[in-house]
Amino acid sequence: MNRHQGNADRGQPVSGGPAASGRRNFLAEFAAMVCGGLAFLAPVGAGVWMFLDPLRRRGAAAAFLPVTELSGIPDDGVPRQFPVVADRVDAWTGFAAEPIGAVYLCRQKGSQTVEALSATCPHAGCFVEIDKAEKCFRCPCHNSRFTIDGGIVAPSPSPRAMDGLECQVGKNGAVAVKWQNFYTGIAEKVARP
Amino acid sequence: MSTSHPDKPKPGLLGQLADFFDDRTGYRALVHEALYERVPGGARWRYVWGSTLVFAFLTQVITGLVLWSSYSASAQTAWESVYYIQHEMTGGWLLRGIHHVMAQAMVVLLALHLMQVVIDGAYRAPREVNFWLGLVLMMLVLGMALTGYLLPWDQKGYWATRVATNLAGLVPLVGPSLQQLVVGGPDYGHHTLTRFFALHAGFLPATLVIMLVVHLSLFRKHGLHAKQPITKPDAMFWPDQVLKDAVAMLAVMAVVLGVILMPALRAMLDGRPIVPGELGAELGAPADPSQPYAAARPEWYFLFLFQFLKVFEGWGATGEFFGAIVVPGLTMAVMFLMPILGRWNLGHRFNVAFTLAILGGAGLLTALALNEDYCARWIDPATFADVRELHEKTEGDPAKIAAALGNDPGKIADFKKRHRKWDAYRHSQAFLDAAVQAKVDAERSIELAGRPEKIPPAGALELVRNDALSQGPKLFAQHCASCHAHVDPAAAGASALLAKASAANLFEFGKAAWMRGLLDPKQVAGPAYFGNTAHKEGDMVNFVTNDLTDRDTWKPADIEAVIAAMAAEAGFADTQAPPDLIEKGRTLIADGERCGGCHKFGDNDMELGSAPDITGWGSKEWLVGILTDPTHERFYGDSNDRMPSFGKADEGAMPLLTSQQIGLIADWLRGEWYRPAAAAH
Ligand code: FES
């Protein structure tokens, strides 16, 4: 036998051996588990608490954002893409007037009202592009196609038509769009909080 | 020492040290146990897959830790630090290349290891738990691959991750919360990166190490699952099997290095210079949430899942949920049941067939996905000319198409089929174009990041957004190209483009060649100048066609002097043009009997309002001025023809373009953007 050995193998009787009562043993086990569990509860609890923080973060509330002027949208019934610019907060960074997304705006001949479609694909959030030659919208990611007014072209990976956005034309011709994000991949158009 | 024999010589200093530690740790027994394992039936090549996987993982740990020491996870520093690793740090390209390619090798090795275990029935009792652990390990590795893709924060990773996390949102009930937890908030940003990085370099590998230790110790406990029947004598793990393992590891590493260095070899053979930063893993343009990225694809080993979603096309949201969650979930469930099913011979056969079917199916789907993206490379668009023509003529109206085909159902069906193929071709072509554009954008961002002024604190995206070369064409296409052409008149097909334009061609605007064309009586009323505008019969056209052709007042040398002086106004003076020629031109322009009869120029006596002020014509300041407000009396005033005032807006309204955007268009038209020193001449 080696002289360097652990305590457990020294061969002396252990106090909690068969002689000790079962009840005492149970109490010790229970107490050990409770104390150990409580000790770990603090770091685990604090960790989970902080980890869940993103759940209480909300995006910017939907608001009408000025996008362009009426004269900037030719009245030829062909949608044009416009960036949506707004202040944006990313955790600790604040961006002033950043492009945060894009809309397609479309005006019919002689009309003073504007149709707005979000450029975000309702399938999984890629950027829908306009196909001028085929007069339709096309999403490059999974090839969803939409008609020129945003309707769905079956069969489509997208579960719904492109998302229309509310659009206001002010007296001075300023065009503002109510910018919103919607849940993707579902048949109903549900705005994200 | 109790273990030393009297007849044995006393060990040397090193030996004593070894004894000291062995006494206290028993490491010799451990090493012995690790190395002197029996391999029934002798060492075999087919046992190497597990070891190569461990090797691949260790490679990832080593390269990953070093990458970590130079990586910075935030939306303004992730791309920037990866750029620095890849393009500026010595050996960064190699390290990142190994990490990137080995990750892919690991996926291949995983598939091989799994296939071998299933075919050999190595999951049977008592090894079930170890098989399950293996499946968990596999998911951890795939999780690391998925999270690693985002970390460079380039367009490719950003958009692929957006799609992937949006799919996570489809999980019933908890989906949206799950997605928000993974993304780190309502939107993609710093916390998406920090979370993905914590997963990629912390949670997942830590879990993997624990699982791997258990996996390996269970493997030792049960012993190697020998291939039956055993024909050869047993061998020892060390050194027989270890030798085979080591050779296999070396082979894996050689393949990885080969993949990294292959382009360098090709460049060398072609006599091109080798740029180390271009080897190994690529780095796209920095992530830009407002810039579409049409070439977004997951890594190749996830392509089959991507393609699988398309199988459920037309099922709507249910299909999505089915394809992204239910089917992969069921597949994993079947795999977890394999050890139980494998108790019966039929079950084992099912397992083998199932695994091969999954791998084969994945291979097929990958091929389909690649074909969809690349088919334009081998399809000739000319074969669809008639389909395209008919579609254009009828504007895609099914009734009209049917009528044009004589309402023949056979012909209509054939047309539909071929139209679908034509559509597939166009989709592929769009992808290929997008991939080329992505490459151009990536190269430009890297060029910009390499400026001597370095990257500004706001990050590389700011550099790209303020770069005239990348933004100019986009802004021009969106705001100017509906009227103006921008095409080299000497280029093939230029005349068709010019004929379509309804305003002047702005190619090389401000240069002597442009001015020479304007002052050419044959061109001034042509489509490249005033031909398609309200000024077609205006004073300028009149002046050029009548006055300028009068050789008594206008000698050819005078016209050349005017051209030289105008180019000098724009700041594009030909270095060859003698200063006195330019001076002469200036005098002619200012002359109230000549150009100065209509145009204000410098301090001549002309009042503003009759024609554009041509002082500093074509300079940035002049261009910004006319783009901002062409109706200003300094420019066209009331006679402005259709050009919008891009920078002017009524109270409370937004101008069409910001002053920064106008500046970018002006810089782009003038060809003024950053050029790296080496390429400048
Ligand atoms: S994200 Fe648009 S089709 Fe999938």
Alpha-carbon Rg of chain A, integer: 31 Å
CA-atom Rg of chain B in angstroms: 35 Å
Report the CATH superfamily of the largest domain in chain B: Cytochrome Bc1 Complex, Chain C
The CATH architecture name of the largest domain in chain A reads: 3-layer Sandwich
> Which percent band covers the strand fraction of chain A?
25-35%
Report strand % of chain B.
Answer: under 5%
Per CATH, the class of the largest domain in chain B reads Mainly Alpha
Can you tell me the overall shape of chain B? Answer: elongated
User: Which second-level CATH architecture of the largest domain in chain B applies?
Assistant: Up-down Bundle
Number of strands of chain A: 10
Major pleated sheet of chain B: 2 strands, antiparallel
The overall pLDDT average of chain A reads 85
Give the oligomer, counting copies of the same chain as homo and different chains as hetero: heterodimer
Low-pLDDT runs of 5+ residues of chain A are 1-8
> Helices and strands of chain A, in N-to-C order?
HEEEEEEEEEE
- In this structure, how is the largest beta sheet of chain A organized? 4 strands, antiparallel
What is the straight-line distance between the termini of chain B?
Answer: 79 Å
